[in-house]
Amino acid sequence: MHTDVLVIGGGNAALCAALTAAEAGARVLLLEAAPRLLRGGNSAHTRNLRCMHDAPQDVLVDAYPEEEFWQDLLKVTGGRTSEPLARLTIRASSTCRDWMRRHGVRFQPPLSGALHVARTNAFFMGGGKALVNAYYRSAERLGVQVRYETPVQRLEIEAGRFVAAHAGDERITADACVLAAGGFESNREWLSEAWGTNARGERPAEQFLIRGTRFNQGVLLRHLLEAHRADAIGDPTQAHMVAIDARAPLYDGGICTRIDCVSLGIVVNREALRFYDEGEDFWPKRYAIWGRLVAGQPGQIAWSVIDAKAAGRFMPPVFPGEVAQSLPELARRLGLDEATFMRTVDDYNRACQAGHFDHTTLDDCHTAGLQPPKTHWARPLDTPPYTAYALRPGVTFTYLGLKTDETAAVRFGDRPSDNLFVAGEMMAGNVLGQGYTAGVGMSIGTAFGRIAGAGAASAAHRARKENA
Fold it and tell me: When you count CB atoms within 10 A of the terminal residue's CB, does the N or C end of the chain come out lower?
């Protein structure tokens, strides 16, 4: 079969591309690997996108100017980012909400409390599943043809130009194609291959859990990189990786498995030792480093330990924690060496400096003479009951992807294709070399999905003119 624009993928970036191409008058076919009930990829698990704004805007309070957004991104990536593509994403985030509303997305009023995101992030009413459903309804109205349970195994590419896609025994041709099929985070064999064996003889990736869809196997990504030598970007071990509840399911645990009390207590590893500053910065800026930190610990496991003073100050996870009336009892319940655990807690408690605790600011409650330090929100663990949550690394999406530029074109030997484009997780490594800050993945997917869709529609229009 033949279409003007073929979109491979079914999440936010793919839908933004399909909608944009359809708005431009192209006939669009979208292929989603998942069944209809599980459509939307990781986007179904999201809640918000990060938005630049110079003044209060509808659901966003105060201001979050371009330079502050850029500095936040620069900090979490450690400079491993393309500034032009990052700034393109940032600027696009300031103007996308009206377009999203036209396609049925609704936003909820600003949030208050400990998440610190009412100024920076716009939250979807009903979460990511509602956003995905709204986009699919809009796509249907625009005439986009959607086929579920249709994974694509390989592409035909000639001299850098897309020719056809193969889904099972079917060959589908198109004048242009957008790749938005996600990373390889659901492919545990590839994760294990990338992470290898550590100095303790462990294979860390075997302990990883996948926060999102099971359908992001990276089949097309590997095919593009190996069979067609498309230009690559990113480190295969880098990912949006969060510390989540160790009891979470292997796939599709989503947001409710995240543990958000890290900054309110201490985190210890299997040896009952702390290993990083729990109060380094506001949680939305630093939560995504903790998956990788736990991945580096023995057995890829750790415990977030709080006391009663933390109650009500964080989003409660779906599973209850391990609770004890004394710290020695808690150590025994966790299977940790009691003497070492008590020494760790006693050292921390003695190091806590009196200050004015305020979890909504970078307060002056810190430790002194302790390694690693706790920079903010350091209060002694001294008020029972005590609670601990077991942590495992939870992978959201991987950063190895296809190199691109401001046109979203896939590149071969540093030459951009004129009819093959990429968006979403398959190119997020251009902006995210490491680290993460809340909502930026949706910002990248929305910006480059729309760019890719417009580029594909233009390529299809050129092809029609040439063939007329």
Answer: C
